[in-house]
Amino acid sequence: MPTSPPPDTPGTRGGCFAVLDPATGEAFDEAPDQRPDELDAVVGRAHAAWRTWRADPAGRTTALLAAADAVQAAGADLAPLLTREQGKPLAESYAEVARTAARLRYFAELGPETRPISDDRPVRSEVRWRSLGPVAAIVPWNFPLQLASAKFAPALAAGNTMVLKPSPFTPLATRLLASVLSTALPEGVLTIVTGREPLGARLASHPGIRHVTFTGSVPTGRAVARAATASLAQVTLELGGNDAAILLEDVEVERIADRLFWAAFRNCGQVCMAVKRLYAPARLYSEVAEALAQRAKSVVVGPGLDPGSRLGPVSNAPQLARIERYTARALAAGARAVAGGHRLDRPGYFFAPTILADVPPDSPVVTREQFGPVLPVLPYVSLDEAIEAANDTGFGLGGSVWGTDLDRAEAVAGRLECGTAWINHHAETSLDQPFAGVKDSGVGVAGGPWGLYGNLSPFVVHRPVEVYG
């Protein structure tokens, strides 16, 4: 996942900070730089709203469905603003708005199930579920609305309230989203706070917060987890991935090349579960690298608001610097840029879509999460070697296997150390599936009923069959 911004970015203007357009590198608006000491009042209002919100399941369903309709109706306002601050093509921003509305509808209709316990005693026992209280969510800049809704939709549906902090690189669309949602949700149920550190750290450690959910880098996730221990709040951490794709010997390269390219380069490669390493059989290695290079060279890169752009800029200057640094180190160590390999000579944070061949396996562009429009392609001789290389990482979010023998591909997928494995596609998810990683990719589960129950605590009631039985 994206790294946290350094303390001096974005720039400040009094009580606000500047928001930059990644297509130009210039400031185009600003957002409030809220002080950590303002959180007491914010969390207090969330706690007050929780008392009413948790007690009315039918009212929650009605409000969340109305919120979904409001988000969908506001797409023409939300999507261009999202593109302006994040950089992605406008069509992808509209898709993100639609996904936000869909997630609200999904969780609005999803409720916990009371479960009876049968243990041969003269007692009727059952497991019920209770909301936790105010929840804190800290969201990164790559999918600001979609990842926000992945946190607030299940939390609110479970009867909690939420204080949400977006990245200081992308606060504007989230603030507008909050305004849209306020037409359907009671005051205090969902509050957006914007600002730079230590605002996030203070929110994670606030004694009034009962659950902290975070998406971002591993180092920041560890810091969030440490902060949450101050109040013994539970945590859910989604900390990114270094997903590997393994091509089998029987793969038909031209049939999968488009799908494989976009699995790595959608949103300019700034996707936690994008393909970030590709392992190809030695016999097909050159063909695979060239097929992907052709697509990298031909794809239209430009401002997200330009209708012809298929790839936008990298979202912010620190992330661009990271991508440049990893690519330069790989090239200096002997890698070849079959396509790209450099920043584009134009205003903004544009980096040429890059396919790297002959990459040393210990290069940071292979071993770490580069999180940008760069894909290393590595050859393998034996399948066991490829599987071992795919698993040789501290991450474990996703992975994929590509080939025509589906039984064999599924057997290989079963050996990948990750939370989700795909066959002949990658990073495609549904609202009703669990989303979780292993190893350094996170703690806890999001998505589907698992996401709902992650925002609840069990409450067991024992009732005797007879008054004093």
UniProtKB/TrEMBL annotation:
Source domain of life: Bacteria
Chain segments annotated as transmembrane: none
Keyword terms of this UniProt record: Oxidoreductase
Active-site residues, record numbering mapped to chain: E238
Annotated ranges, domain Aldehyde dehydrogenase: 16-452
Record-linked InterPro entries: Ald_DH/histidinol_DH, Ald_DH_C, Ald_DH_CS_CYS, Ald_DH_CS_GLU, Ald_DH_N, Aldehyde_DH_dom, LUC3-like
Metal-binding in keyword set: no
CDD domains per the UniProt record, alphabetical: ALDH_AldA-AAD23400
Keyword rRNA-binding among UniProt keywords: no
Similarity field: Belongs to the aldehyde dehydrogenase family.
PANTHER family per the UniProt record, alphabetical: ALDEHYDE DEHYDROGENASE-RELATED
Name this polypeptide is given: Aldehyde dehydrogenase family protein
Protein's organism: Streptomyces rugosispiralis
